[in-house]
Amino acid sequence: MIPLRVTALIDAPEGAVRRVLARTDIWTRTARAIGGHAEVAGEQTGDRAPLRSGDLIRFEPERSRRGWSASLMQPRSLILAIAIADGLPRFDLLAGPANLCRIVVSTASTGAGTLVTVDTQLELAPRLITPLYRRRVLAAGQLLLGIVRLSAAEIHVVVAGVIIEDGRVLAARRTHPPALAGKWELPGGKVGPGETEADALARELAEELSIEVAVGDRFGAEVELGDNQVLRCRTARICAGRPDPTEHDLVHWVGSTELDRLDWLTADREFLPLLRRSLDQI
Q1: Which of 89, 191, 198, 274 has a Cα-to-Cα distance from 53 of 20 to 30 A?
Q2: At 171, which CATH number?
Q3: Looking at residue 8, what is its pLDDT?
Q4: Which domain holds residue 232?
Q5: DSSP states of 111-164 as a string?
Protein backbone atom coordinates (compact mmCIF):
# COMPACT_ATOMS: atom_id res chain seq x y z
CA MET A 1 0.00 0.00 0.00
CA ILE A 2 1.31 3.44 -0.98
CA PRO A 3 -0.15 6.34 1.06
CA LEU A 4 0.38 9.76 -0.53
CA ARG A 5 -0.72 13.07 0.97
CA VAL A 6 -0.87 16.61 -0.41
CA THR A 7 -1.96 19.59 1.69
CA ALA A 8 -2.47 23.29 1.08
CA LEU A 9 -3.62 26.27 3.12
CA ILE A 10 -6.19 28.18 1.07
CA ASP A 11 -7.07 31.77 1.92
CA ALA A 12 -10.83 31.34 1.64
CA PRO A 13 -13.71 30.40 3.96
CA GLU A 14 -14.13 26.67 4.55
CA GLY A 15 -17.67 26.71 3.17
CA ALA A 16 -16.48 28.18 -0.13
CA VAL A 17 -13.65 25.65 -0.39
CA ARG A 18 -15.96 22.72 0.32
CA ARG A 19 -18.44 23.83 -2.34
CA VAL A 20 -15.63 24.06 -4.86
CA LEU A 21 -14.30 20.59 -4.00
CA ALA A 22 -17.74 19.11 -4.64
CA ARG A 23 -18.01 20.62 -8.14
CA THR A 24 -17.68 18.43 -11.22
CA ASP A 25 -15.57 20.92 -13.18
CA ILE A 26 -12.80 21.04 -10.55
CA TRP A 27 -11.99 17.38 -11.16
CA THR A 28 -12.35 17.49 -14.95
CA ARG A 29 -10.10 20.58 -15.06
CA THR A 30 -7.52 18.75 -12.96
CA ALA A 31 -7.63 15.84 -15.42
CA ARG A 32 -6.88 18.22 -18.30
CA ALA A 33 -4.07 19.84 -16.31
CA ILE A 34 -2.27 16.52 -15.83
CA GLY A 35 -2.66 15.57 -19.48
CA GLY A 36 -5.86 13.61 -19.73
CA HIS A 37 -9.60 13.75 -20.08
CA ALA A 38 -12.29 13.03 -17.51
CA GLU A 39 -16.04 12.63 -17.76
CA VAL A 40 -18.52 12.34 -14.91
CA ALA A 41 -21.62 10.19 -15.43
CA GLY A 42 -24.55 10.77 -13.12
CA GLU A 43 -27.97 12.33 -12.67
CA GLN A 44 -26.71 15.89 -12.97
CA THR A 45 -24.37 17.08 -15.66
CA GLY A 46 -22.96 20.47 -16.46
CA ASP A 47 -19.90 22.57 -15.84
CA ARG A 48 -20.51 23.26 -12.16
CA ALA A 49 -22.94 20.50 -11.31
CA PRO A 50 -22.30 19.04 -7.85
CA LEU A 51 -20.89 15.55 -7.57
CA ARG A 52 -23.30 13.03 -6.06
CA SER A 53 -22.94 9.64 -4.44
CA GLY A 54 -23.23 7.00 -7.12
CA ASP A 55 -21.69 9.13 -9.89
CA LEU A 56 -18.84 7.59 -11.86
CA ILE A 57 -15.78 9.40 -13.20
CA ARG A 58 -13.71 8.01 -16.06
CA PHE A 59 -10.17 9.26 -16.61
CA GLU A 60 -8.46 8.74 -19.97
CA PRO A 61 -4.78 9.72 -20.31
CA GLU A 62 -3.72 11.36 -23.55
CA ARG A 63 -2.06 8.99 -25.98
CA SER A 64 0.87 11.35 -26.34
CA ARG A 65 1.62 11.32 -22.61
CA ARG A 66 3.81 8.22 -22.51
CA GLY A 67 4.71 8.82 -18.91
CA TRP A 68 1.12 8.10 -17.97
CA SER A 69 -0.27 5.80 -20.62
CA ALA A 70 2.55 3.51 -21.72
CA SER A 71 4.33 2.82 -18.46
CA LEU A 72 1.72 3.54 -15.81
CA MET A 73 -1.81 3.11 -17.09
CA GLN A 74 -2.78 -0.35 -18.28
CA PRO A 75 -5.62 -0.56 -19.13
CA ARG A 76 -5.69 3.00 -20.44
CA SER A 77 -8.64 4.25 -18.41
CA LEU A 78 -9.52 4.58 -14.76
CA ILE A 79 -13.11 4.33 -13.58
CA LEU A 80 -13.79 5.64 -10.08
CA ALA A 81 -17.00 5.51 -8.05
CA ILE A 82 -17.90 8.67 -6.15
CA ALA A 83 -19.30 8.76 -2.64
CA ILE A 84 -20.21 11.99 -0.85
CA ALA A 85 -19.57 12.07 2.88
CA ASP A 86 -20.23 15.23 4.90
CA GLY A 87 -20.42 17.19 1.65
CA LEU A 88 -17.00 16.13 0.33
CA PRO A 89 -16.22 13.54 -2.36
CA ARG A 90 -14.37 10.24 -1.98
CA PHE A 91 -13.23 8.24 -5.00
CA ASP A 92 -12.87 4.44 -5.10
CA LEU A 93 -11.41 2.50 -8.02
CA LEU A 94 -13.76 0.30 -10.04
CA ALA A 95 -11.44 -0.43 -12.97
CA GLY A 96 -7.81 0.39 -13.70
CA PRO A 97 -4.21 -0.75 -13.25
CA ALA A 98 -4.31 -0.86 -9.45
CA ASN A 99 -5.81 -3.34 -7.01
CA LEU A 100 -6.90 -0.41 -4.90
CA CYS A 101 -7.09 3.33 -5.41
CA ARG A 102 -8.88 5.59 -2.96
CA ILE A 103 -8.84 9.39 -2.90
CA VAL A 104 -10.19 11.12 0.21
CA VAL A 105 -10.51 14.89 0.62
CA SER A 106 -10.81 16.68 3.97
CA THR A 107 -10.89 20.30 5.13
CA ALA A 108 -10.24 22.11 8.39
CA SER A 109 -10.83 25.76 9.21
CA THR A 110 -7.86 27.61 10.71
CA GLY A 111 -7.16 31.19 11.68
CA ALA A 112 -5.13 31.60 8.48
CA GLY A 113 -7.61 30.00 6.08
CA THR A 114 -8.80 26.52 5.16
CA LEU A 115 -6.42 23.58 5.32
CA VAL A 116 -7.22 21.10 2.53
CA THR A 117 -5.79 17.57 2.57
CA VAL A 118 -5.91 15.09 -0.31
CA ASP A 119 -5.04 11.54 0.76
CA THR A 120 -4.43 8.93 -1.94
CA GLN A 121 -4.07 5.24 -1.13
CA LEU A 122 -2.67 2.99 -3.85
CA GLU A 123 -2.10 -0.71 -4.11
CA LEU A 124 -0.18 -1.41 -7.31
CA ALA A 125 1.61 -4.20 -9.06
CA PRO A 126 5.34 -4.12 -8.13
CA ARG A 127 6.37 -3.01 -11.62
CA LEU A 128 4.35 0.18 -11.23
CA ILE A 129 5.76 1.21 -7.84
CA THR A 130 8.27 3.73 -9.08
CA PRO A 131 9.47 7.17 -7.95
CA LEU A 132 8.03 8.56 -11.21
CA TYR A 133 4.58 7.28 -10.34
CA ARG A 134 4.73 8.80 -6.87
CA ARG A 135 5.85 12.15 -8.28
CA ARG A 136 3.04 12.18 -10.83
CA VAL A 137 0.37 11.37 -8.26
CA LEU A 138 1.67 14.08 -5.92
CA ALA A 139 1.85 16.55 -8.82
CA ALA A 140 -1.78 15.78 -9.68
CA GLY A 141 -2.78 16.54 -6.09
CA GLN A 142 -0.88 19.82 -6.15
CA LEU A 143 -2.57 20.84 -9.42
CA LEU A 144 -5.96 20.02 -7.93
CA LEU A 145 -5.31 22.23 -4.91
CA GLY A 146 -4.08 25.04 -7.16
CA ILE A 147 -7.34 24.93 -9.12
CA VAL A 148 -9.32 24.84 -5.87
CA ARG A 149 -7.40 27.89 -4.57
CA LEU A 150 -8.28 29.93 -7.67
CA SER A 151 -11.90 28.79 -7.78
CA ALA A 152 -12.53 29.38 -4.07
CA ALA A 153 -11.45 33.01 -4.49
CA GLU A 154 -14.15 33.68 -7.11
CA ILE A 155 -17.09 35.85 -6.06
CA HIS A 156 -20.44 34.13 -6.65
CA VAL A 157 -23.47 36.34 -7.21
CA VAL A 158 -27.07 35.74 -6.15
CA VAL A 159 -29.44 38.13 -7.89
CA ALA A 160 -32.93 39.03 -6.67
CA GLY A 161 -35.74 40.91 -8.38
CA VAL A 162 -37.50 44.03 -7.14
CA ILE A 163 -40.87 43.80 -8.91
CA ILE A 164 -43.13 46.73 -8.07
CA GLU A 165 -46.73 47.10 -9.23
CA ASP A 166 -49.36 49.56 -7.98
CA GLY A 167 -47.20 50.68 -5.07
CA ARG A 168 -46.44 47.14 -3.83
CA VAL A 169 -43.42 44.87 -4.15
CA LEU A 170 -43.57 41.13 -4.81
CA ALA A 171 -42.28 38.88 -1.99
CA ALA A 172 -42.02 35.08 -1.95
CA ARG A 173 -41.98 32.68 1.01
CA ARG A 174 -39.30 29.98 1.06
CA THR A 175 -39.86 26.29 1.68
CA HIS A 176 -36.22 25.14 1.76
CA PRO A 177 -33.71 24.60 3.17
CA PRO A 178 -35.46 23.74 6.46
CA ALA A 179 -33.58 26.45 8.37
CA LEU A 180 -35.02 29.12 6.05
CA ALA A 181 -38.49 27.68 5.46
CA GLY A 182 -41.22 30.22 6.18
CA LYS A 183 -39.00 33.26 5.65
CA TRP A 184 -39.68 35.82 2.94
CA GLU A 185 -37.37 37.01 0.18
CA LEU A 186 -37.19 38.97 -3.02
CA PRO A 187 -37.34 36.15 -5.59
CA GLY A 188 -34.28 35.24 -7.66
CA GLY A 189 -31.32 32.89 -7.61
CA LYS A 190 -27.69 32.24 -8.46
CA VAL A 191 -25.96 33.66 -11.51
CA GLY A 192 -24.66 30.71 -13.51
CA PRO A 193 -21.39 30.41 -15.46
CA GLY A 194 -21.40 32.70 -18.48
CA GLU A 195 -24.67 34.42 -17.47
CA THR A 196 -25.22 38.10 -16.93
CA GLU A 197 -27.14 39.17 -13.84
CA ALA A 198 -30.06 40.19 -16.05
CA ASP A 199 -30.16 36.85 -17.87
CA ALA A 200 -29.92 34.92 -14.62
CA LEU A 201 -32.73 36.89 -12.98
CA ALA A 202 -35.02 36.48 -15.99
CA ARG A 203 -34.33 32.72 -16.01
CA GLU A 204 -34.86 32.32 -12.27
CA LEU A 205 -38.15 34.25 -12.27
CA ALA A 206 -39.42 32.19 -15.21
CA GLU A 207 -38.52 28.97 -13.38
CA GLU A 208 -39.73 30.00 -9.92
CA LEU A 209 -42.78 32.13 -10.72
CA SER A 210 -43.68 31.34 -14.36
CA ILE A 211 -43.36 34.99 -15.42
CA GLU A 212 -41.48 36.78 -18.16
CA VAL A 213 -39.76 39.96 -17.04
CA ALA A 214 -37.77 42.86 -18.40
CA VAL A 215 -34.80 43.38 -16.08
CA GLY A 216 -33.73 46.89 -15.22
CA ASP A 217 -31.05 48.61 -13.17
CA ARG A 218 -29.29 47.60 -9.98
CA PHE A 219 -31.25 48.37 -6.83
CA GLY A 220 -29.21 49.33 -3.79
CA ALA A 221 -25.80 48.07 -2.75
CA GLU A 222 -24.72 44.45 -2.71
CA VAL A 223 -24.97 42.48 0.53
CA GLU A 224 -22.29 40.04 1.71
CA LEU A 225 -23.64 36.53 2.22
CA GLY A 226 -20.37 34.98 3.39
CA ASP A 227 -18.27 32.24 1.76
CA ASN A 228 -17.46 34.52 -1.21
CA GLN A 229 -21.12 35.07 -2.08
CA VAL A 230 -22.94 38.38 -2.51
CA LEU A 231 -26.59 39.29 -3.01
CA ARG A 232 -27.46 41.92 -5.60
CA CYS A 233 -30.89 43.25 -6.50
CA ARG A 234 -32.19 44.50 -9.82
CA THR A 235 -35.52 46.03 -10.73
CA ALA A 236 -37.79 43.96 -12.97
CA ARG A 237 -41.11 44.48 -14.76
CA ILE A 238 -43.54 41.68 -15.58
CA CYS A 239 -44.11 41.40 -19.32
CA ALA A 240 -46.15 38.17 -19.43
CA GLY A 241 -47.84 35.88 -16.93
CA ARG A 242 -48.81 36.28 -13.32
CA PRO A 243 -46.74 35.01 -10.38
CA ASP A 244 -47.42 31.31 -9.87
CA PRO A 245 -44.84 29.87 -7.44
CA THR A 246 -43.20 26.54 -8.22
CA GLU A 247 -40.48 26.59 -5.54
CA HIS A 248 -42.07 28.88 -2.94
CA ASP A 249 -45.31 28.08 -1.13
CA LEU A 250 -46.71 31.61 -1.24
CA VAL A 251 -46.22 34.98 -2.94
CA HIS A 252 -47.56 38.28 -1.68
CA TRP A 253 -47.69 41.86 -2.93
CA VAL A 254 -46.42 43.99 -0.04
CA GLY A 255 -47.03 47.68 0.54
CA SER A 256 -44.73 50.08 2.37
CA THR A 257 -46.54 49.72 5.71
CA GLU A 258 -46.51 45.90 5.51
CA LEU A 259 -42.79 45.38 4.94
CA ASP A 260 -41.92 44.99 8.61
CA ARG A 261 -44.73 42.48 9.19
CA LEU A 262 -42.98 39.78 7.17
CA ASP A 263 -40.18 37.58 8.51
CA TRP A 264 -37.56 38.43 5.88
CA LEU A 265 -34.28 36.66 5.27
CA THR A 266 -31.47 38.57 6.97
CA ALA A 267 -29.81 39.59 3.69
CA ASP A 268 -33.07 40.76 2.08
CA ARG A 269 -33.86 42.83 5.17
CA GLU A 270 -30.94 45.09 4.21
CA PHE A 271 -33.00 46.35 1.25
CA LEU A 272 -36.11 47.27 3.25
CA PRO A 273 -35.23 50.95 3.94
CA LEU A 274 -34.65 51.61 0.23
CA LEU A 275 -37.76 49.60 -0.68
CA ARG A 276 -39.85 51.62 1.77
CA ARG A 277 -38.64 54.91 0.30
CA SER A 278 -39.27 53.67 -3.23
CA LEU A 279 -42.80 52.54 -2.44
CA ASP A 280 -43.64 55.75 -0.58
CA GLN A 281 -42.63 57.81 -3.65
CA ILE A 282 -45.10 56.03 -5.94
Answers
A1: 191
A2: 3.90.79.10
A3: 96
A4: 156-280
A5: TTEEEEEEEEEEE--GGG--HHHHHHHHHHHHHHHHHHHHHHTS-EEEEEEEEE
